[in-house]
Design goal:
The protein contains eleven helices and ten strands. With 285 residues, the protein is α/β, with parallel strands linked by helices. The protein folds into two domains: 59 residues, no CATH class; 215 residues, Rossmann fold, CATH 3.40.50. The chain has a seven-stranded mixed β-sheet with strand order 6-5-4-7-8-10-9. Helix 2 packs across helix 3, helix 3 packs antiparallel against helix 10 and helix 4 runs parallel beside helix 5. 45% of the residues are buried. The structure holds S-adenosylmethionine.
């Protein structure tokens, strides 16, 4: 672990000595677990604290499948990015981008399209710090510390407004994040939708206990219980509420499905108990 207090008790973050800073300087609360660092832990990352690992243990006690749920989520994100590139969409606004780990959006996008652009947004300081650290030398990538619930601020932030050309299609990615937000998501995403031109994409997923299989529904409720007491409790929505987030977009086949099975069923992967969907902004009439 490269995190936590140093030998003199000064809290630090970052594995790169030159970039280390005190936790208080960047506003990190390392006493209270949060979604960014718990997810990093489940994916095998090193940017998490004892509080995150203790909360992760409670989540796994409630649902032992949780590490796989995270891996399936991450794999869905990668497939969506690759699919966007096949559609000619090479600008990404990644909301709730998380602590960088394997298969980061900019790595996938820049490998296939060196002129691609990726604007990362997260409100969690460890995620932002590490993302800045690994992308500092890259053209076409920005990292903004911001709260996606404030679309005006996000869309006008120089990291977003100066990097992405909204006259061309942009893909908004809201993956693994919306079930941490207890707010009026349709209103928030209506504002993002209004900023997008024709051919733009909204790709999202969201945990849901609205499942036909009662065991799967219970496994999702168990995850919700496991996150209680963290800085980012889980809010479950039903499939109609999740579909409504794509209001104003044309739903791309196969529509609303478990992330394990987007865009095609994967016989070797069990569903995780979420809904994933991709919408395309229609031509203006
Ligand atoms: C589980 S991680 C998902 C990371 C990445 N999108 C992925 O799917 O691999 C959720 C991320 O959303 C971020 N997040 C939660 N609420 C947010 C908000 N209101 N604004 C910005 N980021 C938020 C958390 O800090 C965390 O990094």
């Amino acid at each position: 672990m490269g995190e936590g207090p140093d030998d003199e008790g000064t809290p630090r973050v970052g594995t790169n000595l030159a970039s280390m800073m005190t936790l208080s300087e960047v506003g990190i609360d390392f006493e209270r677990a949060n979604a960014a660092r718990i997810y990093d832990y489940f994916l095998g990352g090193a940017h998490n604290f004892a509080s995150d690992r203790e909360q992760a243990a409670r989540i796994v006690a409630a649902n032992p499948d949780m590490p796989r749920v995270c891996r399936v989520n991450r794999a869905f994100l990668g497939r969506v990015v690759r699919w966007c590139l096949t559609q000619g969409v090479d600008q990404f606004l990644d909301l709730g981008s998380g602590v960088p780990t394997v298969g980061n959006v900019h790595e996938i996008a820049l490998r296939q399209r060196p002129t691609a652009r990726v604007a990362y947004v997260d409100f969690e300081p460890v995620a932002v710090h590490h993302a800045r650290e690994i992308t500092a030398d890259l053209d076409g990538v920005s990292v903004t510390q911001g709260d996606l619930r404030r679309p005006e601020e996000i869309l006008h932030d120089p990291g977003v407004a100066d990097l992405l050309d909204f006259d061309r299609p942009v893909a908004i990615l809201a993956v693994g994040v919306l079930h941490f937000i207890d707010d009026d998501l349709p209103a928030i995403f209506g504002r993002y939708r209004d900023a997008l031109g024709p051919g733009s994409i909204l790709a999202l997923n969201h945990g849901s206990s609205d499942q036909d299989d009662p065991e799967l529904a219970e496994s999702v409720r168990a995850i919700e219980r496991g996150y209680r007491g963290s800085a980012t409790p889980v809010v479950l929505r039903d499939r109609v509420q999740i579909r409504d987030l794509l209001d104003g977009f044309e739903l791309v086949p196969p529509g609303l499905v478990d992330p394990a099975h987007w865009p095609v069923p994967n016989p070797s992967e069990q569903p995780v108990g979420a809904y994933a969907a991709v919408g395309r902004a229609p031509a203006r009439t």
